[in-house]
Design goal:
The protein has 207 residues and is an alpha/beta fold. It contains 7 helices and 7 strands; from the N terminus they run E-H-E-H-H-E-E-E-H-E-H-H-E-H. Strand 3 and strand 4 form a beta hairpin. Helix 1 packs across helix 7. The longest helix has 20 residues.
């Protein structure tokens, strides 16, 4: 099993990179584990307080469960991945059944900040993008998918996203094996990554 970690700021284009990896490999050969599914369950906290919590720092993630699930997959065991509802900021009852695959992609803004998780990765990628571009994408996504107004997104960006990016996410790029500048628009870098992944898989599949 090949484990690929893909980090980068919110709105940097990580999803596009993941999609390109999936498209470049045979069908059903890739399992994707989004960091966002592993936010701690805060359902016991009143909604008004949950909406004010900081979800852009490592302490917001249940790393122990994410690491356990990745270990299970590496050992050939299927997992029940949790799901998270961003509108209510709480974990849902439903889970997603994930079978072990030749490639497992662990994707999220903070995935390179946790050493135990990082040490389980064969390839570490950081998707870089201009701050203005990322903000535009975040406004578009959060207004459509998460029920927020543009002003709410901008306020959150200034108060939380930007300082957390500078404190945790940007420094984590030093752990990356590959930087992809220009985010999901960088077709050359993405092709280099997908070609490299295929080259790593080929000898494994020939064993």
């Amino acid at each position: 099993m090949l484990v690929i970690g893909i980090a980068g700021g919110t709105g940097s284009g990580k999803t596009t990179v993941v999609r390109r990896i999936i498209e470049s490999l045979p069908k059903d050969e890739v399992a994707v584990i989004p960091q966002d599914c592993y936010y701690k369950d805060n359902a016991h906290i009143p909604l008004e307080e949950r909406l004010k919590m900081n979800y852009d720092e490592p302490a917001s993630i249940e790393w122990s469960l994410l690491v356990k699930h990745l270990k299970d997959l590496k050992e050939g065991r299927a997992i029940e991945m949790p799901t998270y509802e961003f509108i209510t900021c709480s974990r849902q009852k439903e889970t997603i059944h994930i079978e072990p695959r030749d490639v497992v992609v662990v994707e999220g803004i903070l995935v390179l900040t946790d050493k135990e998780l990082r040490d389980m990765m064969d390839v570490k990628v950081f998707v870089d993008a201009d701050a203005d571009e990322r903000l535009i994408r975040v406004i578009h996504r959060d207004c459509i998918e998460r029920g927020r107004t543009p002003q709410m997104v901008i306020d959150r960006y200034v108060e939380t996203l930007k300082p957390m990016h500078e404190l945790y996410i940007e420094p984590s790029k030093r752990y990356a094996d590959l930087l992809i500048p220009q985010g999901g628009h960088n077709k050359v870098a993405i092709k280099l990554l997908t070609d490299y992944v295929r080259s790593l898989l080929k000898p494994r599949n020939e064993i």
